[in-house]
Amino acid sequence: MTRADIHCDNIQKSFGAVETVSQLSIVFKSGQTTALVGPSGCGKSTILRMIAGLETPDTGSIRIGQETPRQVARRGGLSMAFQDPSLLPWRSVRSNIALGAELARKPVDRVDELIDLVGLVGFSDHRPAELSGGMRQRAAIARSLISAPDVLLLDEPFGAVDAITRRRLNRDLPPLWRERKTTTLLVTHSVEEAVLLSDRVIVLCPRPARVLADIPVDLHHNRALPETNAPAFRDLAMRVLTALEEAA
Amino acid sequence: MAVGRFIVTAVVFALVWEFLARAQTGSMIISGPVAIAEYLTNNSGLIVRAATETTTNAVLGFLWGNLAAMMLAVIVTLLPRSEWTISTLALLVFCIPLIASGPILRVLFGPGPGPQITLAALAVYYTTFLAFLVGLKAVSQNWTDLMGVYGRGRVATLFTVRLRASVPYLFVGLQIAAPAAFLGAMIGEFTGAERGLGVLTLRAMRGLQTDATWSLACVSAGIAMLGYGCLGALRRKFTPHAPVILFSPKRLDLGRSITIQLIGFVSVVGLVFVLWQGAMDAFGLNPFFAKRPGDIFRFLSEPAHLNTLLAALGATLAYAVPGYLAGLGLGAGLAILLMLWPPVARATMPIAIALRAVPIITTAPLLVLAFGRGFTGTVAIVAVMIFFPTLVACLQGLRQTPAQIVDLFESYGASRFQLLRSAQIPAMLPALFASARMAVPAALLAVTTAEWLATGRGIGVLMALTSSTSDYNMLWSCVVVLCLVAVVSYAFVAWCEKKVLGIYANEQLA
Ligand SMILES: Nc1ncnc2c1ncn2[C@@H]1O[C@H](COP(=O)(O)OP(=O)(O)OP(=O)(O)O)[C@@H](O)[C@H]1O
Ligand SMILES: [Mg+2]
């Protein structure tokens, strides 16, 4: 696996007269998981979309290793789970998940494994319309994982997922991307989830988006999930929360 | 249960029809079911041969026209920059009244089914193009984003997402196209074929054979409705929810300045002339019947020729304009009336949609029988042709009134009239104008066909005359002038639309 840090260099983006992102420079280390938190509308999705190559910054540049986001996307090295599951209504769950591999031109061989992982066993032949909102989101997560991307962008992937399944996914997903050394960006509104899943939490403040706090999380020395009521965890969560309150 | 009620309705309908026919025997206007059945059994061989011929041509035209329409829509999707040019060209071709291109196709193709098939194709391609294009574009940004994340471009998006997402829209378009193809094939036969239902109809009308005219009209309408029904069944099988489509292109982009629109328009018209000249030269067509733009210009520079043409055009417009306005007015008026009684409107909608599918031209001979060959008959044909599509579009438009606005009015205890005047009619205007634009070529088609069949005046007759006397300069001039009238009227209606919507329906459009 090539070392492919994501370099955001002085990026700026406006929609009409509103400057959404201004002079933002961040490096996301290859193989690390970074959580982005911040108030609603502060530009988290916009940053993810720029890294995915769906939007281009007005000024500044984004590089993933030596490549541009578009180049990484074109060789299937990128995938994203959107805020909205965006499943194709005429395809079954199985075929929607397989689509991730088809589009990335990767072998379609792990569909069942992933259906199992996101807890959709028994629903693989259902259409999205027959699923609940949380189940659709899980299908979308599976679709983003199946292409084994170098860069994984998760935009509030667990928003509609119920608490129990969310805990299970919180437990099962990180080992997957750590094992593959996937560079993961996770947008979430849950402070606990941010600390739990990531190696680093970035708190953004709005209009224009700016890094308010950059908090390293060093709880992942062993493979097990951090203990959420350990003092170290609570300290970190508190720091993130304080920064968030300042941002809002 | 439903079948039982249908049979009872059909029997009552047939009895009333028969009664009217018997009461009218002396005047030779209505043939009853018994007379029709008798005629059909006595002439079954002839009718079956003719129906097979016409249906075959209609099916071939349906296939070619829809294929062309789908390819055009795919090109526009893959090359978005070409949209304006291709859409405008497609609209220009759609504005050519079918009956006007019939005689020219006849001389170009010679005998045989070529013109009928071409006209059937021309009759279907535009609505399919519009419906399919709407479908190809009706793709949420989420899906194009998904494709973008994997670095996949327009072609992959077309195959993975757009084609599949457009299927319901395509089916709605194809369903409308089925009776239209039949109409095109019939009109092709009116302009001088050897075989087919159109030929028999023409003969029956000229011979004042009431039974034959009615029988042929019933057979034609029946086949067209059967096509509509079959495609409807197919559509329901594949896509349970039919989307609502306004069969009308978008208005010209309001953002562009009028100068840019004019320049664009003039260059497209120029392109048409270049294509026209180029096609004639490329196929090395005989200048005796294949006239070029220059020939027409020289011919019309002669004042005598121009005057003949303009006199005929004047006569035609004197029929077309009242018919056009009557059709639009009656359609919109009835839609509004029905809206005041919602249960009636709900019940009428399916009937109106079904009747919209009857190719009115196949029943034109009956209207001529009923209203005569003069002003009333011709205006009636034009009005009926426009009435049903307008009624359907306006009912759909009235229903588009946002539910919150209706709730707001009701929360203030506003009356039905207030709701209608302040909320529903403004919401209906875009649909009304959309049908008004699409009705322009339809009105010219109806009036020229009626003239060709019956009246003995106007540009339709001039075309019939000149095509039989091989006066090809005049024939081509008629076609060119009709197209110009169609395009200018279309632009005029679009201009009125912009003005009116700017005043009354701005917020509903946003
Ligand atoms: N395509 C667009 N056109 C116009 N404005 C946009 C567009 N996309 C985003 N914005 C604006 O940019 C700002 C940031 O939007 P973004 O979706 O990135 O926020 P977010 O941090 O993801 O919010 P949330 O947590 O609610 O998802 C918002 O104010 C939004 O209105
Ligand atoms: Mg967002």
TrEMBL record, chain A:
<keyword id="KW-0813">Transport</keyword>
<dbReference type="GO" id="GO:0016887">
    <property type="term" value="F:ATP hydrolysis activity"/>
</dbReference>
<keyword id="KW-0067">ATP-binding</keyword>
<keyword id="KW-0547">Nucleotide-binding</keyword>
<dbReference type="InterPro" id="IPR017871">
    <property type="entry name" value="ABC_transporter-like_CS"/>
</dbReference>
<comment type="similarity">
    <text>Belongs to the ABC transporter superfamily.</text>
</comment>
<dbReference type="InterPro" id="IPR027417">
    <property type="entry name" value="P-loop_NTPase"/>
</dbReference>
<dbReference type="GO" id="GO:0005524">
    <property type="term" value="F:ATP binding"/>
</dbReference>
<feature type="domain" description="ABC transporter">
    <location>
        <begin position="6"/>
        <end position="231"/>
    </location>
</feature>
<dbReference type="InterPro" id="IPR003439">
    <property type="entry name" value="ABC_transporter-like_ATP-bd"/>
</dbReference>
<dbReference type="InterPro" id="IPR003593">
    <property type="entry name" value="AAA+_ATPase"/>
</dbReference>
<dbReference type="InterPro" id="IPR050166">
    <property type="entry name" value="ABC_transporter_ATP-bind"/>
</dbReference>
<protein>
    <submittedName>
        <fullName>Nitrate/sulfonate/bicarbonate ABC transporter ATP-binding protein</fullName>
    </submittedName>
</protein>
<dbReference type="Pfam" id="PF00005">
    <property type="entry name" value="ABC_tran"/>
</dbReference>
Automatic annotation (TrEMBL), chain B:
<feature type="transmembrane region" description="Helical">
    <location>
        <begin position="317"/>
        <end position="341"/>
    </location>
</feature>
<protein>
    <submittedName>
        <fullName>ABC transporter permease</fullName>
    </submittedName>
</protein>
<feature type="transmembrane region" description="Helical">
    <location>
        <begin position="431"/>
        <end position="454"/>
    </location>
</feature>
<dbReference type="GO" id="GO:0055085">
    <property type="term" value="P:transmembrane transport"/>
</dbReference>
<feature type="transmembrane region" description="Helical">
    <location>
        <begin position="86"/>
        <end position="105"/>
    </location>
</feature>
<feature type="transmembrane region" description="Helical">
    <location>
        <begin position="212"/>
        <end position="234"/>
    </location>
</feature>
<feature type="domain" description="ABC transmembrane type-1">
    <location>
        <begin position="313"/>
        <end position="493"/>
    </location>
</feature>
<dbReference type="Pfam" id="PF00528">
    <property type="entry name" value="BPD_transp_1"/>
</dbReference>
<feature type="transmembrane region" description="Helical">
    <location>
        <begin position="353"/>
        <end position="372"/>
    </location>
</feature>
<feature type="transmembrane region" description="Helical">
    <location>
        <begin position="58"/>
        <end position="79"/>
    </location>
</feature>
<feature type="transmembrane region" description="Helical">
    <location>
        <begin position="378"/>
        <end position="398"/>
    </location>
</feature>
<dbReference type="GO" id="GO:0005886">
    <property type="term" value="C:plasma membrane"/>
</dbReference>
<keyword id="KW-1003">Cell membrane</keyword>
<feature type="transmembrane region" description="Helical">
    <location>
        <begin position="169"/>
        <end position="192"/>
    </location>
</feature>
<dbReference type="InterPro" id="IPR035906">
    <property type="entry name" value="MetI-like_sf"/>
</dbReference>
<keyword id="KW-0813">Transport</keyword>
<feature type="transmembrane region" description="Helical">
    <location>
        <begin position="117"/>
        <end position="136"/>
    </location>
</feature>
<feature type="transmembrane region" description="Helical">
    <location>
        <begin position="254"/>
        <end position="276"/>
    </location>
</feature>
<keyword id="KW-1133">Transmembrane helix</keyword>
<comment type="similarity">
    <text>Belongs to the binding-protein-dependent transport system permease family.</text>
</comment>
<keyword id="KW-0812">Transmembrane</keyword>
<feature type="transmembrane region" description="Helical">
    <location>
        <begin position="474"/>
        <end position="496"/>
    </location>
</feature>
